[in-house]
Amino acid sequence: xxALDKARxxxxxxxxxxTTVKSPDFxxxxxxxxxxxxxxxxxxxxxxxxxRADFLDxxxxxxxxxxxxxxxLTDAExxxxxxxxxxxxxxxxxxxxxxxxxxxRDRHQQASEKIDDYVISLRELAxxxxxxxNACMEAAIRDQIVEGLENAEFVEELLKVQNLTLAKAIEVAxxxxxxxxxxxGKGS
Length: 188
Hints:
Blueprint: H1 2-11, H2 23-37, H3 49-59, H4 62-69, H5 75-78, H6 81-95, H7 98-101, H8 115-126, H9 134-148, H10 152-160, H11 166-185
Helix pairs in contact: 3-6, 8-9, 9-11, 10-11
C-alpha cells in the first residue's frame, strides 16, 4: 500500500543538519536525498509536490527546518522541494570561507603517513577551496604533494619530472614509497 511505502521512506530519510554541515557533506547528502526521491512513492503520478516537500521536511533536523523557514521563501517556494534544496545549497555555499578553507597549503605529509592517505587528505581539503576549476584544483594538489612530502629524496625525484601532472606525481611518489618499503623489507 502507498501509505506503507511513504512510512518506510520517511523512516529512512537522510538527515541534514545545517548547523554543522559543510559543502562536501551537503553534496553527499544531496546525492542520497535525490536517490530517495527517485524511489516509488515519491515519483510518478502518485506523488504530489506536497509529498515531496513533506519528505524534504523529514530529511531536515529541527534546527535545519527552522533555518529553512527563516530564509524568506514564499509558501509556493516552500511547497517545491527542488527550490528548497537549491536555496539550501546556496545557503551552504555562502557560508564557505575559501580563505579559511584553503588549509590545503598547510597540510604536510606526516612521518608514517602513506602517500595514498596523504593524497586523499589533500583531495578532501581541496573540496572546499573554491578553485577556479578541476585543473586548478589538480595543480594545487600536485604542488602541495611536492611541497609537503616528508622525504626530501622523493621531492627531488618529483622535481626532475618534466611537465609533472597530479597523476604522474602520485604515480612517481607511490613508486618511490614502494621501492623504499621493499628495500626496508630486504634489510637495506
